[in-house]
Structures are given as structure tokens and as C-alpha cells.
Amino acid sequence: MPSSPYPEAIADTPGRGRTILLAWEMGEGFAHAARLLWIARRLTRAGWHPVVAARDPTTLREAYAAEGIALVAAPPHEPCFTGKPPFRAASYADVMGVCGYADRDRLAGVVAAWDAMLARLAPAAIIADYSPILSLAAFRRFPLIPIGDGFVLPPGVPGGGFPPLGRRQPDVWPPAALLENARAVQAALGRPLPDSLPDILHGIGGVVSIPPELDIYADWRPLPAAGPWERPEAPLPPPDAPRFFGYLRMSHPQARLTVKTLIDTGLPGELFLRDIQPGMAEALAEAGIRLHATPPPIRVALARASLFIHHGGIGSLTDGATAGRLQLLLPRHREQTCNARRALETLPGCFMAGSGISGETLRAELPKLLANRQLLDRAQAAAARLAARPGTAWAALQPLLARV
To answer: Of the candidates 8, 133, 265, 285, which lies 20 to 30 Å from 404 by C-alpha distance?
Structure first.
């Protein structure tokens, strides 16, 4: 078994080989909470004692309790961005900046809160999902295994930076200033100093838990993404007739335009909508569109649909790709836009409705897309290729755990 790169830290850690901290401190909750719950279940079976530090401990709280998995709140942080909205990160360095690295005192405060938790739990290792400040608190003190779905686990590039997020643009904060803040926090605590921002994140090795086709950093990685946490099920057979399923936020202009178009064209399908507006439920019912009060199980919903309409979150994109469905993407923010552009390049049957699309275009193109059986067959073939791959993120995690 390979030796750990931090033998002194492990030797001094009570509970060695048992307690393992799983954490997420950034990002919308359900996907992160579900992913860490899945991992914690399997770690428990393998003899570990997982403790999950969640940005939002209310997400899936009952499911964690049912499994007997300890759940605590991750130390909160306040966004550092004070410019004119919207915030648009040039690279992952700006993501680190907005969560705390742009403000030295604020960064020191969150690191201190993580320090208190680490001192109390004394974990043998840390599995960190989208947790850039925890990564600094643990830097060269605890074996850190970063995991994530591509965007949250960027590779480094020569010179100590990160790849650009989409088209190149000016940095919100100079990466060198963010690194200097991190080094100052570490120096004040008498701890090792990182040489670069990627140095903080990468720990003893990471696990990118998506198919390579959906990895926005695929062209920069030395090794391809590991794939989903478990092998995908076989593609769903096509439904008896063309139908859609949509999972959308009605606070988004393109979502409102798309739902109006679905109503106007009378296309058959189902929706789950957040931020629904007054009168929308009645209009959908009159158009014969089923509105779900709660999110249905995704494969159950997709079994009845040939087209999946969503915002381009990586979980939804993976679900649509492995089910073998056409996908219409309405990205709401930078990460989803990057995901969508990658999907357009690598997955057949993916389309994006950007901010410039008109209702007239949607009314003309949506019925044709829904009825395109040739494209659906290509999406089915791509899903079959994904299901045939043997590699999984869980398998990629095992040699890293063995180092602990």
C-alpha cells in the first residue's frame, strides 16, 4: 500500500482509519447532498464513520437520519463580490475569490471555523465536494480527496492558474492577489504555504465524477474524468409517442418563454416548475400539460418523454444522456452555460436556447425537435456507449482511500 504524503498528520490523528469528513460548502444543494449521501452509505459499509458537513443541512436531512449518518452544518461564508451584477467568473480563481479568497479577514474567519470542526472531529481523511475554503484549512494537514462534477474540480495549467471558463475575459480579481491572501492566512497560523491556487485544491488526488463527454475541462486534464459514481443503467426505450418533460425555474426568462411556447403549441408532456407564477397551473391544465407538485423520480419521468427540457445542470445533463433522451438546455448561469456548450460539442441530440432566442423560433423548432426520431436514435446509441463503460468514480476513489 502506498504511503500517505502526510504521515505526521495521520499519526497524530485520533480515530485514525475510522472518522472521515465529507463536505460541501458551495453550490445548490440537492445534487451535492445526494452525492455525499450515496458515498457515505458505502463508506459506512466499508467500516468508516462518515460525518457530513453540509452547506444546507436541511437538504435530505431525513434520508441522512434514516441511514444514521452524522450531519452538521458547514461553516457559512458570505460572497465577496460587490460589483455590478451579474457576477461572471473568468476562471475558477474567481470562484475562489467570491467565496472568500478576495477578502483576507473573511477568509481567515471561515478557515478558523473549519479548524474548530477539524479539531473536534479529527478525521483520518476529508472528501471535499466544492469546498475551496475547507481545502485551505486542511492544506497539508489532513489527506484531502477533492471530488466533483468537472466544474468544481478544475485542473491546473502551467503558471499556476486555471483554464478559462468559456470565452476569455478579464479576471474579477487578480489570481496572484487571491493566492497572497491564502498564503497570509496560512502564515499567520504557522502552516505550509501553497505555491498556487490549484495547489490548494488538489490534495492527494481527485475524482471527477462525470462522463468525459460532459467535462468542460476535458481538453486540459492529464487523465479523463472517471465517470459517474456507479455504472449507468441501460438506456430507457423510446416512449410510445413524442412527449417532453421539463424541470425549470420560472424566474428565468427563457423558462417562461419556453413554457408559454409549450402551452401555445399544444405539445404533449409534463413539467415540474419552481417559482411558478399565478395562473400558470390553470393555463397548463387547459393545454393538457401535466404539472407535478413535487419532482418526480427522474427516470420515471424520462421513461414517458423523448425530450428533456432543463437548465443544464450537470446532474440533469448526465441523467438525460444516460437515459438516451433529446435535451433542450436553458442555462441560467455561467456553469450551466459551460456545461451546455460542452454537451453541444459531444452529445447528439442536445440543443441550447440562449438569451437571444425568440418565441417565434421556439414555436417553429420545438415541434420539429420533439418529433425527430433520427436524433433520438442517435441519443440512444450514445447512452448505450456510456452504459457499456466499466469505469466508475467509486472505483477511482478506492486507491485514494487506500493511501489513508
So the answer is: 133
Residue carrying the nine cell digits 455590478: 84
Closest CA to 111 of 194, 173, 38, 167: 194
| Kind of pairing between the strands at 144-148 and 207-208 | parallel
Cell readout for 29 is 444543494
Say which residues have a Cβ less than 8 Å from residue 77's Cβ, sequence separation at least 6: 25, 99, 100, 106, 110, 133
**205: left (phi > 0), else alpha (psi -120 to 50), else beta?**
left
Instruction: Identify the pLDDT of residue 29.
Output: 67
Q: Among 114, 112, 115, 118, which residue's Cα sits nearest to residue 14?
A: 118
Cell of 363: 414555436
Q: Which helix (H) or strand (E) holds 145?
A: strand 144-148
Packing angle of the helix pair 359-370, 253-265 (nearest 10 deg): 60
Q: For 198-229, how does the pLDDT look when each residue is reduced to its tens digit (9 = 90+)?
A: 999 999 999 999 999 999 999 999 999 999 99
Question: Can you tell me the distance from the alpha carbon of 331 to that of 164, in angstroms, rounded to the nearest whole number?
Answer: 18
- 246 alpha carbon, distance to own chain's centre: 19
305-328 pLDDT, tens digit each: 999 999 999 999 999 999 999 999
Contact 217, 163 (CB under 8 A): yes
How far is the C-alpha of 153 from the C-alpha of 348, rounded, in Å? 25
DSSP annotation string for 241-288: S--EEEEEETTSHHHHHHHHHHHHHT--EEEEEESPPTTHHHHHHHHT
